[in-house]
TrEMBL record:
<dbReference type="InterPro" id="IPR003593">
    <property type="entry name" value="AAA+_ATPase"/>
</dbReference>
<dbReference type="GO" id="GO:0006269">
    <property type="term" value="P:DNA replication, synthesis of primer"/>
</dbReference>
<dbReference type="GO" id="GO:1990077">
    <property type="term" value="C:primosome complex"/>
</dbReference>
<keyword id="KW-0639">Primosome</keyword>
<dbReference type="GO" id="GO:0003678">
    <property type="term" value="F:DNA helicase activity"/>
</dbReference>
<keyword id="KW-0067">ATP-binding</keyword>
<keyword id="KW-0378">Hydrolase</keyword>
<keyword id="KW-0347">Helicase</keyword>
<protein>
    <submittedName>
        <fullName>DnaB domain protein helicase domain protein</fullName>
    </submittedName>
</protein>
<dbReference type="GO" id="GO:0005524">
    <property type="term" value="F:ATP binding"/>
</dbReference>
<dbReference type="InterPro" id="IPR027417">
    <property type="entry name" value="P-loop_NTPase"/>
</dbReference>
<dbReference type="Pfam" id="PF03796">
    <property type="entry name" value="DnaB_C"/>
</dbReference>
<feature type="domain" description="SF4 helicase">
    <location>
        <begin position="29"/>
        <end position="329"/>
    </location>
</feature>
<dbReference type="GO" id="GO:0005829">
    <property type="term" value="C:cytosol"/>
</dbReference>
<dbReference type="InterPro" id="IPR007694">
    <property type="entry name" value="DNA_helicase_DnaB-like_C"/>
</dbReference>
<keyword id="KW-0547">Nucleotide-binding</keyword>
């Protein structure tokens, strides 16, 4: 791409732009429309195969909905496909995210459909047990069949998956941009950035309202995605009304007007049992329990395809993941917008 970084801007003639396009196509470096599949089939097929360079993907959901789990799973799927991942986390420690990946990778599906592996809670207990050092815990992992499976799978992408612990008191967009630049100058050709989560990004514009501050941050994030030609996934928190609402929508995300404008893709997560229409579905206790095992993902904005479409994935939170094989939601939901695919 012609250089547009820095504080000044340059106007390129159509000749220059066409020459640049031609040069990059000869170099096999025509990357503008290169696709970054998320590895979640139900999502990829609705966004024309995956994210693109410069895309800003916002992921919202209530507390404990599985936002970190989903973001981490997408990041891991990309790393497996050869993408360099930087996961910037304001909330969880590097160690916690690594344990979540180990749990996810340790799983194996038995012929009867049951899933076995190392439960996340057992991994925590193991690491926290008074007499076990981290190196002792690792040795134990190597001695366990599921632990070995996880370590083997992670070995395939471990050097491409980076986790950075950020501080909401100091890690601002400049710090994040410098980290991205460092990786690009070290040779990263395909980079994917995850921010967990957007409203925690430090901003010194304390005089601004929270809404305006979020607006500035999301603008900056979109600029970063475009100028460095990387796709970015940012988790976003819900406002007070959203936390109380039966169904969380994109207008409930904190700083929603700016978020709605800047994002290329907005997906909002809701517990299925909360948002199934009670008029249409006779929700017996048994059905309610069954549905509580699922999360509905609503594509609320989609510059890559059709929006206002829902899909569902089964939770496997014991192993810090979703079963990636889910698809359309058969039951009517509250606030439904009918869409024929
Ligand atoms: N050690 C664990 N064992 C079992 N379940 C866990 C463990 N840690 C987290 N979970 C569950 O996994 C679910 C998803 O967690 P996750 O952190 O992905 O959600 P989130 O939407 O990012 O949460 P938050 O809003 O708190 O950031 C939560 O409901 C949580 O209770």
């Amino acid at each position: 791409m012609l250089n547009t970084k820095g504080t000044s801007i340059t106007a390129f003639s159509l000749h220059e732009l066409m020459d640049d396009l031609h040069r990059r196509s000869l170099q096999g470096n025509l990357t503008a429309s290169e696709c970054y599949p998320t590895g979640i089939r139900a999502l990829d097929r609705r966004i024309a195969g995956g994210l693109r360079r410069g895309n800003l993907f916002l992921l919202g959901g209530g507390e404990g909905a599985g936002k970190t789990t989903f973001a981490l799973q997408i990041a891991r799927n990309m790393a497996i496909e050869g993408v360099d991942v930087i996961y910037i986390c304001y909330e969880h420690s590097e160690e916690e995210l690594m344990l979540r990946l180990i749990s996810m990778e340790s799983t194996r599906k038995l012929p009867n459909g049951d899933v076995v592996g190392l439960r996340l809670s057992d991994l925590y207990d193991e690491l926290r047990s008074a007499n076990r050092s981290p190196s002792g815990a690792l040795a134990k992992l190597e001695g366990d069949q599921y632990g070995r499976l996880a370590l083997e799978k992670m070995e395939g992408y471990a050097s491409r998956f980076r986790i950075a612990k950020a501080s909401s008191a100091s890690t601002d967009l400049d710090v994040i941009s410098r980290l991205v630049d460092e990786h690009i100058s070290n040779g990263s050709k395909r980079l994917f950035l995850v921010i967990d989560y957007l409203q925690k990004i430090y901003s010194n514009e304390r005089a601004l309202s929270e809404e305006d501050r979020t607006g500035k941050v999301v603008e900056g994030l979109k600029d970063l995605a475009l100028s460095r030609e990387v796709p970015i996934l940012a988790i976003v928190a819900a406002d007070k009304e959203g936390i109380r609402a039966r169904r969380l929508r994109s207008y409930h995300l904190r700083g929603s007007s700016a978020l709605l404008y800047e994002a290329d893709l907005i997906v909002v997560m809701n517990e299925k049992s909360r948002i199934v229409s009670r008029q249409a579905v006779d929700l017996t206790a048994y059905k309610a329990i069954q549905m509580s095992g699922w999360v509905v993902f609503s594509i609320e904005k989609n510059r890559l395809g059709r929006d206002l479409i829902d899909f569902q994935l089964k939770k496997m939170f014991n192993f810090s993941m979703f079963d990636p094989s889910g698809d359309a939601v058969p039951e009517p939901l509250v606030d439904d917008t009918v869409h024929i695919e």
